[in-house]
Amino acid sequence: MSEQKVGLEIANGVAVISIDNPPVNALGHAVRAGLVEQLAAAEADASVRAIVLACKGRTFSAGADITEFGKPPRAPGLHEVIERFDNCRKPVIAALFGTTLGGGLELALGCHYRVAVESARMGLPEVKLGLLPGAGGTQRLPRLIGPEKAVAAIVSGKMIGAKAALADGLIDAIVSDPVQGAIDFAHTVDPAKLVRVRDRSDKIAAAKADPSAFEAAAAEATKRLKGVEAPAACVEAVRNSFTLPFDEGARAEQQAFMRLVVGDQSRAQRHVFFAEREAQKIPGIGPEVKGAKIGRAVVIGGGTMGGGIAMNFANAGIPVTIVETDEAALSRGLDRVRGTYDVSVQRGALPAGTTEKRMALFSGSTDWGVMAEADIVIEAVFEELGLKKEVFARIDGIARPGALLATNTSTLDVDAIAAATKRPGDVLGMHFFSPANVMKLLEIVRGKESSAQSIATAIAVGKTLGKVPVVVGNCDGFVGNRMLARRTIECERLMLEGALPQQVDAVVKAFGFPMGPFAMGDLAGLDVGWRIRKHRGATAPVSDALCEMGRFGQKTGRGYYIYENGSRVPTPDPEVEALISEKATALGITRRAISDQEILERMTYPMINEAARILEEGIAIRPSDVDVVWVYGYGWPVWRGGPCFHADLVGLKEIAARLEHYAQAVGDETLAPCALLRRLAAAGQGFADFAQDAKAAS
Ligand code: CAA
Ligand code: NAI
């Protein structure tokens, strides 16, 4: 079996060992066994002078097989494999191309030399899975590029391009063909002068003498990471590379890896990694349904969302036209886009000259005729059903047959919009999140008529734009906002019952969200929710009163908090505290001290209950899709895996009991656990069991 995964070819004194394990040459058990076997064969063959380690297919290895984590280890482990390469008495050259990641790079670091094609990228992204590189990466990388650069690379998990890798000493040459380049390189090396990476000391000597530069680099790399275990473990491991002998450092690294890999944070992050990929698999839509290629896009409406959506296309190199009602609105929209690029360039986030390059892909028009050329039309006009229907009827008359027609509505009925056209199969929702050029989540709202082809194209477009697409059903708020609405109701109640915005925000931030709900509301603008409430005849005594006072949040300098002199830092405001007390008294509520635990439960459990309803109704395909929505659209901490993953950790029995309690205490029946939550809780099951059953049934 191992022969199938790792091949060996010998010619002119050079043995080429090739991993062949599609799609990403992950280092699963069969690969590891094959490597040991083929390396031994190459070493034993007297005609072999040097060895090239190569990979077949689209990339060098992406690292350990993540699906094996958490299962009983099977020998040979990756350590053992790398040690054998390390101890090989013939020169070994790794031939890198594509993305060389994690254990794949660690394997290459166990070779004597590394050559790469110019487009190759390499990195140790284990931190993104809640781990640290566990096969010697934290010890070998510093010995090649220095501990300061190594700690930055390992804590961020970012990839390094071939040119930078060459400059830093990570690779030894850039070649035009990986295998031939490595073979040519092999002929130039002197087998008598082999130095193993583990024995090199030149790059760690400075840190050994004075670790201050390393400590500064470590502090910089970890400054925004709180509550997360892996980055600190990465720092400690890299520090060991210059404070401990290699073997001791490697042992400590392995121990840290074993500790992290069984922890909830890493489990959560691995869950999200697979959930993101699973979300793109839609039952009933097989791989034979390919997304159509998009060569030109039109976005109708160049406001907050339209401009941001259009930027995604330009960023992906796709020409895009913004259509507006008049020239003034058009130039306002295009100016805002230009301004956003300019700010990124000024901040150094984008290279100089980017604005012009990207703007060259933009055009603007008030003439709807431009739509005839488009492969995709995305509507982002005001949130009014009548207007959207009118717009879609008009698009229908102009767009070419087969073009994808999408609405960015956040609340309206996608079926009603689709019905305004004679081609509802080509219509769906593409719900981007604000700021649309930044936020990764894309909810693809499937109308009852949306065709498989349209869904496949929308998913492909989302991926091309660098988004994380999740297909959801058509209902009020879809998945994300429908759950958020539950949290928003509790926010208002908590204020009236005795909590203050700052207390609630602190609890939600301590849980791991980048922002609390009140600070978030102030940033987004309180008038948005106010308008929606008025439209629906709903009320929120405190929030409505703030809006009546003109306190719309950051943009007016006052909201739930006060923002003085243009500051963006929320400062608690006694006036808000007084207002809350006054409203509570008027409603006959005696305010009480509310514990942080109660706040956390009410900020999460009602949303989890709504997730269960969403699953019950088939609005989300699977619980992990809900998790992806919340991680990528709403800042749910990735190391907590999303609401459904988190719920399973807490236990649905506990959550159902608490919801029962709150339903009675607050007097709101909708807080009581829904039928699905009740059923799973009673059976001692979790969302994971529900997902498994659903998969088995389909
Ligand atoms: N193990 C198992 N499966 C993997 C995998 C891995 N390391 N990396 C990717 N896959 C699977 C994906 O789940 C996906 O499977 P499906 O087609 O069934 O959904 C398939 O390979 C293709 O992956 P992508 O859709 O992500 O393909 P892409 O071309 O967009 O991206 C990639 C390729 C950049 C390699 C990306 O998959 C990636 O980032 N992979 C993870 C890399 C990583 O984190 N490696 C470190 C592993 S941990 C480690 O190595 C620990 C250690 O130190 C010992
Ligand atoms: P906006 O008010 O900033 O922009 C709307 C733009 O549409 C304006 O520039 C207007 O001139 C233009 N417009 C109106 N009628 C038009 C027509 N007939 N033809 C061409 N252009 C027309 O609104 P925003 O915030 O960009 O919202 C747009 C859509 O996106 C709405 O459906 C909204 O619900 C949705 N949305 C908004 C989010 C947000 O956070 N602002 C998030 C996700 C979706």
TrEMBL record:
Gene Ontology MF annotations: (3S)-3-hydroxyacyl-CoA dehydrogenase (NAD+) activity; enoyl-CoA hydratase activity; isomerase activity; NAD+ binding
Keywords: Fatty acid metabolism, Isomerase, Lipid degradation, Lipid metabolism, Lyase, Multifunctional enzyme, NAD, Oxidoreductase, Peroxisome
Subcellular location: Peroxisome
Coiled coil, from the record: none
Keyword set includes Transmembrane helix: no
Stored PANTHER family: 3-HYDROXYACYL-COA DEHYROGENASE, PEROXISOMAL BIFUNCTIONAL ENZYME
UniProt-recorded name of the protein: Putative fatty acid oxidation complex alpha subunit
Species per Swiss-Prot/TrEMBL record: Acidiphilium multivorum (strain DSM 11245 / JCM 8867 / NBRC 100883 / AIU 301)
